[in-house]
Amino acid sequence: MRETKNELTAIAKRVLSAAEKLGASQSSASVSRSRFFKVGTRNGMVESLEESSDRGLFLRLFVNGKYAEASTSDLSNQAVDAFVERAFEATRLLHPEPDRALPDSELIEELPAVDLDNFDPAIDKVSKERKMDMALRADKAARAVDEAVFSAQGGFNERRGQQVLLTSEGFEGYQDSTSFYVVGSAAVQDDDHRRRSQWAYQQGVKLSTLDDPESIGTEAARRALSTLGAGPVPTGTYTLVLENRAAPWILRLIRGPLSGQSLHQDRSFLKGKLNKKIAAPKLTITDNPLMKQGLASRLFDGEGIPARTRPIIESGVLKNYYLDTYYARRLDLQPTTGSASNLLISPGTYSAEEIIKGVEKGIFVNSFLGGNSNSLTGDYSAGIGGFLIEDGEIGRPVAEVNVGGKVQDLLMSLAEVGNDPFEYSRSRVPTLKLPGVSVAGT
Amino acid sequence: MKNISRRQFVSGVLKGGVLVGALPYVPGLIGCALRNGPGIDETGLQLNGSGGHPSPEVMQRVLNAALLRGGDFADVYWQRQTTQSLHLEDDKVSRAGVGAGMGVGVRVVNGEQTGYAYTEELTEKSMVEAAKTASLIASGTTASPLDTPLEPVEIPGRYPARVIMTEIDLADKIAIVEKANAFAKAADPRVERVQVIQQDALDEVMIATSDGGIFHDVRPRVGLFVMVVASQDGKTERNYYNMGGRRGAEFFSDEIIAAVSDEAVRRTLLLFDAVTPPAGTMPVVMAPGSSGILLHEAVGHGLEADFNRKGLSVYADRIGEKVASELCTVVDTGLHEGDLGSLRVDDEGILTEKTVLIENGKLRTYMQDKLSAAVMGAPVTGNGRRQSYKHYVQPRMRVTYMEPGHHEKDEIISSVDRGIYAVSFSNGQVSIGPGDFSFYVNYGFLIEKGKIGPPIKDVNLIGNGPEVLGRVTMVGDDLKIEPSGFGACGKGGQRVPVGYGQPHVKVSAISVGGVEAAPRVEVET
Questions:
Q1: Is the residue at A427 inside a domain?
Q2: Which one of B6, B98, B103 has the shortest CB-CB distance to A86?
Q3: Is A4 part of the contact surface with chain B (CB cutoff 8 Å)?
Q4: Distances A307 to A92, A114, B143 between C-alpha atoms, Å
Q5: What is the tally of structural domains in chain A?
Q6: Is a pLDDT exceeding 80 seen at residue B511?
Q7: Are the beta carbons of B482 and B423 closer than 8 angstroms?
Q8: Residue of chain B whose alpha carbon sits nearest to that of A406
Q9: Cβ contact (<8 Å) for B512 and A402?
Q10: pLDDT the model gives residue B520
């Protein structure tokens, strides 16, 4: 869509020139357009149809160390000019902070010459009827599994996003990507008014990489049926085996502590831990924005820092923080990027089944319910759902129990990493085995 | 779509918290260096719109285009939102944020089916185009245009905002942020770092409905958030507090600013002595305020009509049945003045009300939007809400709370031999089908032999909605709605501001996530 690219570029140029005229020392403009189509079905009926496109401007404005971020959806020429003025006005009485600036130009390398392969023409070429049908097929397959499934839902979402980023330092970037999502869910009646509802989904940047929707609906129904009768287990210490789909939870526990703001504001238990051992040797986490067909792949980040693959944790040793230009300067470190892309945990040797076989008393965790953690102390606590493991065998379904402890201990305790990263997510995480976790139940 | 049965109560970085001790609401402009801006006066906000919305005639033509293929009803939703924020760290307000959004969404409802489209180009042509896309959900070929002109509907009441925050001088806002920083720094020498965020928004909507008329509402929102890092004997702790609501700039008196800062500091310092509580099932007493998250999760989402219309909720088909202890009367209202979830008119043109959901333990009604109410043959309750013009209506909570009971705080605490006193809650989540929910305690205290013991922190509570509400054995006489400026709830990919509150409530047994086993406690019934 060259036309859209030119259109977005023209708006970005107008913004930068308006900012310069007002007296901004530096500025950057990200102008984007996205388009989506969504279908929701229930019990064979199309329940919702949504389709629209929108545009957005995200402006960063630096006026001698005074800094404003501004976003708007109104991109008419007149509105844009007024908006830049409003953003400029917002900086007027701020305190100057010289570390607030665009990335140093000497740190800006060439954009990587990589084909991310994250655009699929199917977004225009495959008919809406066929996409609607994918949702209906997931829905139908879920109901076909067992007559106990009293309600099934299907869904199809697609989105195309185009973005132009220009900075006053001469950075120019453009990205254009698609994503597709098919979901099925099923509900079954349990005792005592309880319904058990579960879902399954596939997601990818290419429509063709999503399996047939029937398998999604079938998986949702099987998951729902398997949770009938779920309840708490006795309080005690258990080995947790996190299902690959649920395992990105562990990444959420370290995301805050890895951020420049937490580090600089003394709110991170990972402060001062660079190049130190913080996890078991089996843990290697890589941030890879250049992965082909990755859901979070990109050539540059929001500041215009060219994307680079970086180890976060390498064989248990902390290798990188998430540092944007401002916090890197404040901390006197080199900037990396302020935001995560595709996060990969390097797979190990064994399958989930083999890992479960080696567990005497544990819980196979397939979902989390609520919970939170403290980025400074590392205390965490969260609700879990899944299945009891006894002597290497999957047993009864588990619900209404909490896990809790220190994130530091959890990272060190990692005993096994599966060979099965879940591929339908921006994080690709395999099955993980975490012994010695405190579980609060009955 | 991913979260079909899970609803998450999210406060994000800006989490709710509860205020301990009574703090007076200070109306007016006491001690606040704010000029009286243009904008809102005592006569009500609808008179002070900023203009820029389509004319009633255009809205009606768009509605007619939406109904071209039939359908039960349609609406056109125009919205303009203005947001502004200031951020302080290391004693400097060096970052500002501004936001502006405007668009029109068109919805067509046909039975249980919804078609939706929106546009940000406010030409009649673009809006009619969106209407045609939305109309594809209806299969009829007979047009059902409106034959009489839509009339504006007067909305009673007003929000307690005399001065619109988005319109005051930048210098006055910076003064608020600097004061918050100074108060926190001065509160205790152990305070090392202070971060302050001041945020406000003005949301103006115009809703044209095929079966009602034209509704115009201007909704203000303000919030002040303070986070503190403190050190003592080599140990570092952090905590935070915030206040705000659907209020005006006059809310930020010096007293309120100091209250936010002092509370953030107090909450941080007490963590130096905090222990992780024992794990297991035990009695829990909740302090008034942010404990309302319990209601939001344990019953609130489960009583939203869409889940019940579809038979997916643990509360489906149970109107008239006992679903909670008879001490529990649970209310959801749009009329609780000043609180975040309050709304004079919902996002589909229904004037809001105080809706009694559970009365003395018996389920009275679900929270309805127009679609579910029509299908279920129930009256609407004014719970139809949406995040923005980009989203269609869902039944959502407004301000959810439990009516006060007769117990005093002291008798509630002293009735517990061993348990926890949970004071501040940050977030929660529920699984609608079984009714299992969890909520996170930011800090509280152990209760030992009827007395408040050492502080505890960072622990998740989990339970089943009907079971936990069935185990409510004492309800205090001290209802408090959390005065949060940031509380927001996520459902089906849409976030809306909500309010919540509770008096002191004792639950005889809840599963507490801790690290070491606690002695077993028998459940009182």
A1: yes
A2: B98
A3: no
A4: 33, 10, 53
A5: 3
A6: yes
A7: no
A8: B515
A9: yes
A10: 41
Q: Is A268 on the interface with B (CB under 8 A)?
A: no
Same domain, A154 and A13: no
User: What confidence tier does B158 reach under pLDDT thresholds 50, 70, 90?
Assistant: confident
Tell me if chain B has a CB within 8 Å of the CB of A228: no
**A112 CA: distance to closest CA in chain B (Å):** 31
Average pLDDT estimate for B170-187: 96
- Determine whether the interchain pair B438/A370 forms a contact, defined as Cβ–Cβ distance below 8 Å: yes
Pick from A255, A407, A421: nearest CA to A346: A421
Q: Does A7 touch chain B (CB under 8 A)?
A: no
Contact flag B120-A400 (C-beta cutoff 8 Å): no
CA distances from B15 to A186, A210, B241 (A): 33, 37, 8
Is B319 in contact with B291 (CB distance < 8 Å)? Answer: no
What is the reported pLDDT for A231?
Answer: 95
**Same-domain check for residues A15 and A100:** yes
* CATH code for the domain of A210: 3.30.2290.10
| Nearest C-alpha in B relative to A437 | B515
**Domain-wise residue ranges, chain B:** 6-11+275-512, 45-272
A243 and A189, same structural domain? no
B434–A230: do the CB atoms touch at under 8 Å?
Answer: yes
pLDDT of residue B160: 85
Q: Do A379 and B458 touch (CB under 8 A)?
A: yes
- Report the SS3 class of residue A115: coil
Of B94, B103, B313, the CB nearest to A100: B94
- Both tokens assigned to A409: 């201990």
Averaged pLDDT for residues B65-93: 94
Domain B45-272 CATH (choose: 3.40.1190.20, 2.40.300.10, 3.30.2290.10, 3.40.640.10): 3.30.2290.10
Write out chain B residues lying below 8 Å of A97, CB-based: 92, 94
Q: How far is A113 from chain B (nearest CA, A)?
A: 34
**Shared domain check, A127 and A211:** yes
Contact A180, A207 (CB under 8 A): yes
Q: Are residues A364 and A241 part of one domain?
A: yes
CA distances from B92 to A215, B181, B209 (A): 55, 9, 47
The answer to whether position A146 is within a domain reads yes
Tell me how many degrees the CA angle A341-A342-A344 measures, rounded to the nearest 5: 135
Determine, for residues B511 and A90 on separate chains, whether the beta-carbon distance falls below 8 Å. Answer: no
Closest CA to A436 of A233, A235, A237: A237
A150: domain range?
122-226
3-state secondary structure B299-340: HHHHHEHHHHHCCCCCCCCCCCCECCCCCCCEEEECCCCCCC
pLDDT, position B515: 66
A243 and A352 in a single domain? The answer is yes
What is the C-alpha to C-alpha distance for residues B78 and B74, in angstroms, rounded to an integer?
13
3-state secondary structure of B82: strand
Is residue A195 located within the same domain as residue A218? yes
Question: Do the Cβ atoms of B460 and A383 come within 8 Å?
Answer: yes
From chain B, pick out residues whose CB is under 8 angstroms from the CB of A372. 426-427, 440, 458, 460
- Most A CBs within 10 A among B169, B438, B439, B494, hence the mutation to make, goes to B438
pLDDT at residue A78, rounded to an integer: 87
Residue A168 falls within a domain, yes or no? Answer: yes
Question: ipTM more than 0.85?
Answer: yes
A25 and A174 belong to one structural domain = no
Is residue A37 domain-resident?
no
Per-residue model confidence as pLDDT tens digits over B368-389: 999 999 999 999 999 999 999 9
- Please give the structure tokens belonging to residue B273: 């002595």
Residues of chain B contacting residue A100, judged by C-beta atoms under 8 Å apart: 94-95
CA distance B354 to chain A (A): 27
Task: Say if A42 is an interface residue toward chain B (CB within 8 Å).
Answer: yes
Give the tens place of pLDDT for each residue, B439-491: 999 999 999 999 999 999 989 999 999 999 999 999 999 999 999 998 889 99
Provide the pLDDT for residue B42: 32
